[in-house]
Every structure is written in structure tokens, then in C-alpha cells.
């Protein structure tokens, strides 16, 4: 642990709130302290209200904000005196607590204050820092955790037994603090939950936190419980493993009731953890801190028996639901973390972003479990306590806030020839509908086309079977399978009449426009047939299929053959619930091929203006890449759920086709 505080950076902060933002971000930068929205911080500031009266305000982290990236707007200003009065009530329900927090803010547009706001309010220090530090949860989840914490901290910390976050925890802390805090007190440890530090200023509170967590880490080092470097394990790859992963994704999606992303982490750490002989003990205790349950569920699934996992989840629900204050509806019973000797760690979620969070949390959890095990044993909280947090209305509300999922949430699409033009537009249309999208192209620019967890761009020569298989394995490892395939890549060589057409030119066009697509369809088929909502293939054909033109023999023949291939696939793969449809665009000019000079030359050739040339169709309308891409995406959606083997023109109407 080392302090990231820099005097010159702090000097740029012009207010106490800005300093609070600064040190909150310092905490957030260290993932062993704060992970994905965990933890919270506050500062108490006296301000003048609109009547000119001085009023102490608690600025506390708003829910939905992450300490790493928090801004001043992420702190909710709540009237401190009111919070202190609330803390004296004998009891307060969760909904009423949230109502009180929200209705006693001084800014209507502020976020909902953290559910730990009252706890921050009762601590008599201007600055309060509260992360769920890995070292603290490792020790408090170990055998004799409380005694170890007392040994490490002596009388500098007030120690609070586990109580679920919310009003009862705030009240217990207030009582304990009044009795146990002394002149040496600089913080508080919440067993199985996290740690607090306090200070008169931002630097003091932050640097105390660094020192306090550092002491816990030193303790682990002294007890030889720090170093958990994994043993090297030979990496497992190969198409058969990819298929196993896709089968697992299909099973989990069926159980969840919606398609999920399944990311495989077959690194030394995950594989050696999953292969431990004591895995069924150490990984079946529970999460390191209760709020992880909403991301990871209480327990990982060991192996791939989804039905057995569901049975045990149902039992867990049936055992603990009757003790709840109000009736609960069971959440989906699908696992979010899978530990498998062959697959390693698989993280499961509704989106690639969610899966990244799950994987990060479990990556830290493995360290915590191994360190607690080295101290003598990992003991998480009893299942009932975890159930209370998993089914806590306030946590459920956080999940619900995401709103209605987008159409292709949890699904995976692959687009070929995606670096520019129609392919690039397809990537955008599919991403906009929530799909995780894989973009392939020979052009290296494809790798930097988009950013974000839902996108991978891979440079790939589709005429190389080996390169494509490698790309496919990589995609399945990252997302778990394939639901949609958009065959867009193709070349259109310059005009050449048959009597002058070279064999090599003909073969090159066939190799790219036809042969490569056969390989893609064949290799993707085992994955498409496992797609939770059925596989979908969209072939970007051409007007040249129904209406060929002179001078384009190789192109027209290759696209016509591809069209016939797609029709046969529609017949063969219908029983696998895979739909294949074709689009026939024409005269799409907003692609790289059509520079203003080329357009002007072609228009002149036909005696037309550029605008007349672009809209030279029955509807007198211009067809753009986006028009083609939107129709492609819709063909993958529910509108076309009952259509396969169809060919749809997207050309503004062509009199030769009609
Ligand atoms: Zn907490």
C-alpha cells in the first residue's frame, strides 16, 4: 500500500468537495481497495442556504457512481442534522430510509444517497473513507477473524460485528462507537464487510486508510498468507474446448431465460484455482463481502452441471425466503461464476460489460479465499445473511435501474468486411441493439473501429481457413458463442469482359466472395445451432444476382453462387433453428470505393448529374450503408423470426429486378 496523494494535484482543488472528489478517486484507482462501485466516501461541509442560514451538509457518494471516476455531481448533499435525528429512531424501514435520504437533500437533481449515508452522518469527523478492502475481508473472513483484527489494530479501531447495511447497521455503529471510541480511534472495521477511516481533512483520512490497510497486508505477509502466485498450468485451447464453452452458454441461457455472454479465463490463476483438491470446500463458502452477491450469486458453479446448480439454488431460496420480512420472487437460478477444471473461470452475465465486472470480482475473490485459507480457513457469512442482501429491495432496485434490455442484449454477432462501408454500418446497427459484435477484416483499421467491452475487431484473412478458425476460437473464448453471422466481405474487381477475363482473376474473386463464405458458414454452424434464440445468417448479396451486368462476370457469378449456397443452407439448417436470408443492395455510394471523382466520372458517363446518378432508381431515393445495415439487423430480429431463405432487395426499386 502506498499513498497516491500529490500536493501539487491537491493544490488544484478549490473546495472541500473537490478534495473529497480527489481522494475518492485515489481510493478508486486501487482495485484492491475498491471494485466496481463498491465502497463509499463522504465529507461534512457547512454551507449557507438560500435564507442565508448556515447549515451542515453531508456530501455522501450517490448510488450508481464509482469512486474511480466520481465527480462533484456524484455526491448527494443531505442535511446532516436530520440524518443525526434519524439515527436516534428505534427503527426505520428501508423504503422510508431511502425516502428520508432523498427528501432531505439540498439539490433536486442529486443522485440517491448511499444506503450507508446515516452511518457516515453519525461519525463525528469531517472526512470518512469506506472501501471494502481485499486485505480486510480476507482477514475478517478467516478463522478467528475478529481476534486477528484486534491483534492488528489494538485500540485504534472500533470493531463492528456483521449486520446488513442500512439503518440497523448505522444504529449499531452509533451505539458501539459511543462506547468504544477513544482518543486513539482513527477508524472502524466492519467484520465480513469493509473498513472505515476518519480524518479532519481529506489527506489525513485517505492516508490513514492507506496505512490501516497496509497493516492488514503486513499481517498477511508475516503469516505467510500473502503470496498466492499460481502454479503454471499449460494453457488449454482448441475448437473442441470452444464448443464445450458454447454448450455451457446454451445451458445457462436456457436456465436464465435470456441469452448470456460467457467469458472464459483460462489463465494460470483460474485453472490452478479450479483444479485445487479443496475447491469444493473453499469455493462453496460464499462471497468475500455480501454486496458481491448481486453480481456473482452466492456460490460459483463447480463443473458444468447446470441442472444440479439450479436445484441447489432453488433449495437455497426455499430455505431462506420464509424468513424474509416480505414475500420474494425467485431470481433466475443461473450461475454467474463457473469454475471448471478444463475451462478455468467462466464469467456469466447479460452483457460483455457485466461479465467483465463478474470476472474482476471473482479474480479478487480467489486471492481473498487463498489468503484466508493460508491463515487457517476461509469462512464467509452464513447463507441467510447473503440471501438477505441478494433479495434486498434496495439492491434489486439497483439492478432494475438498467431498464428494459436492448433487443440483442446477451447475443453475439460477427460481421465480415467490417472496416468500412456496409460492414462498418452493420457493426454500428448491431451494437446499437445491444449485441456483442466481432468485426473481421483484412484491413488492420478494423481493430480500432470501436471501443468498449461489447466490441472486438480482428484483422483476419478470410481466405485462410487457419486464420479464421483462430479468430473464431478467440471470439468464443471472449463471448461464449455466436448467434448472428453477417457475410459482407467481398471484392468487386474493375469491369472486364469474359473474352479477356484471366483465370487467376476469376479464381481470386471466387475464393473471396464464395469459397471463404462456405468455410465461414461450415465452421460457424456448430455455434449458430447452439444460439439461445436460434442462429441467424444474413448474406449481403447484390442486385447483380437477379440482374447481372456486362463486364462483371466473376462478381455476378460469385454472388449468384453464394446466393444459391445460402438457399441450400436455409433448407439444411432449418431443423437447427438457423435462419438464412439475403439482402440485395444496389448503388450504395457512401463507401470507400466511391470517391467524389469516381462518382462524378460515372455520372457523366450516363449523362446524369451526381444527384441524379445516386438516386437513379424507381423511388428516386439514395440508398446508404446505414439503410442496408439497419435492414440487416432487423433481419436478425423478431420481425423476421419466421422468414428463412428470403431475398430482399434494398435498392430503391430497380426496373430490371421488379
Ligand atoms: Zn460498505
How would you sum up this structure, described in words?
With 658 residues, the chain is an alpha/beta fold. The protein folds into three domains: 7-222, L-fuculose-1-phosphate Aldolase; 239-400, L-fuculose-1-phosphate Aldolase (3-Layer(aba) Sandwich); 412-593 and 623-649, NAD(P)-binding Rossmann-like Domain (Rossmann fold), CATH 3.40.50. It is 43% helix and 14% strand. The strands form three sheets. Strands 3-2-1-4-7-6-5 form a seven-stranded mixed beta sheet, sandwiched between helices. The mean pLDDT is 94. The structure holds zinc ion.
Q: Which class best fits the helix and strand makeup?
A: alpha/beta
At the fold tier of CATH, the topology name of the largest domain is L-fuculose-1-phosphate Aldolase
Report the radius of gyration as a whole number of Å. 30 Å
- Measured as a percent range, the helix fraction is 40-55%
Write out the strand line-up for the largest beta sheet, numbering strands in chain order: 3-2-1-4-7-6-5
CATH class category name of the largest domain: Alpha Beta
Mean pLDDT: 94
Break the fold down into its secondary structure elements and pairings.
Elements: H1 7-11, H2 16-29, E1 40-48, E2 54-61, E3 75-79, H3 80-86, H4 94-103, H5 117-122, E4 127-130, H6 134-140, H7 145-153, E5 157-160, H8 167-180, E6 187-190, E7 194-199, H9 202-222, H10 239-256, E8 261-265, H11 268-274, H12 279-282, H13 293-296, E9 301-302, H14 306-320, E10 337-340, E11 344-349, H15 352-374, H16 383-390, H17 393-400, E12 412-416, H18 421-432, E13 436-441, E14 455-459, H19 465-479, E15 484-487, H20 503-528, E16 535-540, H21 553-573, E17 578-585, H22 596-605, H23 610-614, H24 625-636, E18 647-650
Parallel strand pairs: 5-6, 9-10, 12-13, 12-15, 13-14, 15-16, 16-17, 17-18
Antiparallel strand pairs: 1-2, 1-4, 2-3, 4-7, 6-7, 8-11, 10-11
Zinc ion (ZN) is lined by residues 116, 130, 132, 165, 193-194.
Amino acid at each position: 500500500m502506498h499513498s497516491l496523494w500529490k500536493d501539487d494535484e491537491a493544490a488544484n482543488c478549490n473546495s472541500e468537495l473537490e478534495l473529497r472528489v480527489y481522494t475518492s478517486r485515489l481510493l478508486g484507482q486501487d482495485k484492491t481497495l475498491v471494485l466496481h462501485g463498491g465502497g463509499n466516501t463522504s465529507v461534512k461541509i457547512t454551507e449557507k442556504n438560500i435564507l442565508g442560514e448556515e447549515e451542515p451538509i453531508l456530501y455522501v457518494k450517490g448510488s450508481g457512481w464509482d469512486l474511480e471516476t466520481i465527480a462533484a455531481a456524484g455526491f448527494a448533499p443531505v442535511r446532516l442534522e436530520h440524518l443525526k435525528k434519524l439515527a436516534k429512531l428505534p427503527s426505520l424501514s428501508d423504503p422510508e430510509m431511502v425516502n428520508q435520504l432523498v427528501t432531505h437533500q439540498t439539490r433536486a437533481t442529486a443522485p440517491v444517497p448511499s444506503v450507508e449515508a446515516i452511518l457516515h452522518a453519525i461519525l463525528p469527523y469531517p472526512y470518512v473513507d469506506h472501501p471494502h478492502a481485499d486485505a480486510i475481508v480476507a482477514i475478517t473472513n478467516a478463522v478467528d477473524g475478529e481476534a486477528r483484527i484486534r491483534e492488528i489494530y489494538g485500540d485504534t479501531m472500533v470493531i463492528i460485528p456483521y449486520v446488513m447495511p442500512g439503518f440497523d447497521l448505522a444504529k449499531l455503529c452509533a451505539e458501539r462507537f459511543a462506547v468504544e471510541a477513544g482518543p486513539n480511534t482513527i477508524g472502524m472495521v466492519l467484520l465480513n464487510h469493509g473498513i472505515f477511516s476518519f480524518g479532519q481533512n481529506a489527506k489525513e483520512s485517505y492516508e490513514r486508510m492507506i496505512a490501516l490497510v497496509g497493516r492488514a497486508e503486513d499481517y498477511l505477509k508475516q503469516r505467510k498468507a500473502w503470496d498466492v502466485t499460481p502454479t503454471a498450468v499449460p494453457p488449454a485451447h482448441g475448437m473442441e474446448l470452444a464448443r464445450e464453452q458454447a454448450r455451457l452458454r446454451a445451458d445457462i441461457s436456457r436456465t436464465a431465460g435470456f441469452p448470456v455472454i460467457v467469458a472464459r479465463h483460462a489463465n494460470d490463476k483460474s485453472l490452478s484455482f479450479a483444479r485445487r483438491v479443496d475447491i469444493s470446500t473453499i469455493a462453496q463458502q460464499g462471497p468475500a463481502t455480501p454486496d458481491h452477491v448481486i453480481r456473482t450469486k452466492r456460490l460459483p458453479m463447480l463443473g458444468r452441471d447446470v441442472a444440479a446448480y439450479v436445484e441447489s439454488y432453488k433449495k437455497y431460496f426455499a430455505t431462506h425466503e420464509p424468513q424474509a420480512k416480505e414475500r420474494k420472487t425467485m431470481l433466475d437460478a443461473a450461475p454467474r461464476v463457473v469454475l471448471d477444471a478444463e475451462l478455468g473461470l467462466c464469467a456469466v452475465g447479460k452483457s460483455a460489460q457485466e461479465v467483465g465486472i463478474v470476472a474482476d470480482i471473482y479474480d479478487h475473490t480467489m486471492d481473498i479465499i487463498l489468503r484466508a485459507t493460508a491463515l487457517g480457513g476461509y469462512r464467509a457469512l452464513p447463507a441467510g445473511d447473503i440471501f438477505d442482501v441478494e433479495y434486498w429491495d434496495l439492491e434489486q432496485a439497483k439492478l432494475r435501474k438498467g431498464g428494459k434490455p436492448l433487443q440483442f442484449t446477451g447475443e453475439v454477432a460477427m460481421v465480415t468486411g467490417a472496416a468500412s462501408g456496409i460492414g462498418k454500418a452493420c457493426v454500428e446497427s448491431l451494437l446499437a441493439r445491444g449485441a456483442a459484435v466481432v468485426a473481421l477484416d483484412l484491413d488492420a483499421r478494423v481493430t480500432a473501429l470501436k471501443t468498449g467491452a461489447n466490441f472486438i475487431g480482428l484483422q483476419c484473412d478470410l481466405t485462410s481457413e487457419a486464420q479464421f478458425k483462430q479468430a473464431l476460437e478467440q471470439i468464443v473464448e471472449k463471448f461464449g458463442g455466436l448467434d448472428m453471422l453477417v457475410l459482407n466481405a467481398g471484392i468487386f474487381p474493375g469491369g472486364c469482359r469474359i473474352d479477356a477475363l484471366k483465370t487467376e482473376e476469376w479464381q481470386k474473386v471466387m475464393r473471396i466472395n464464395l469459397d471463404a463464405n462456405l468455410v465461414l458458414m461450415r465452421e460457424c454452424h456448430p455455434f449458430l445451432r447452439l444460439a439461445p434464440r436460434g442462429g441467424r445468417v444474413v448474406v449481403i448479396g447484390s442486385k447483380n444476382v437477379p440482374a447481372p451486368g456486362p463486364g462483371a462476370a466473376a462478381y455476378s457469378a460469385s454472388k449468384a453462387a453464394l446466393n444459391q449456397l445460402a438457399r441450400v443452407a436455409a433448407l439444411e439448417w432449418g431443423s437447427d433453428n438457423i435462419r438464412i436470408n439475403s439482402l440485395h443492395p444496389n448503388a450504395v455510394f457512401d463507401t470507400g470505393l466511391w470517391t467524389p471523382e469516381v462518382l462524378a466520372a460515372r455520372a457523366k458517363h450516363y449523362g446524369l448529374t451526381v444527384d441524379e446518378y445516386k438516386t437513379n432508381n424507381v423511388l428516386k431515393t439514395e440508398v446508404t450503408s446505414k439503410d442496408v445495415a439497419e435492414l440487416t439487423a432487423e433481419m436478425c430480429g423478431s420481425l423476421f423470426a419466421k422468414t428463412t431463405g428470403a431475398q430482399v432487395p434494398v435498392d430503391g426499386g430497380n426496373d430490371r429486378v421488379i
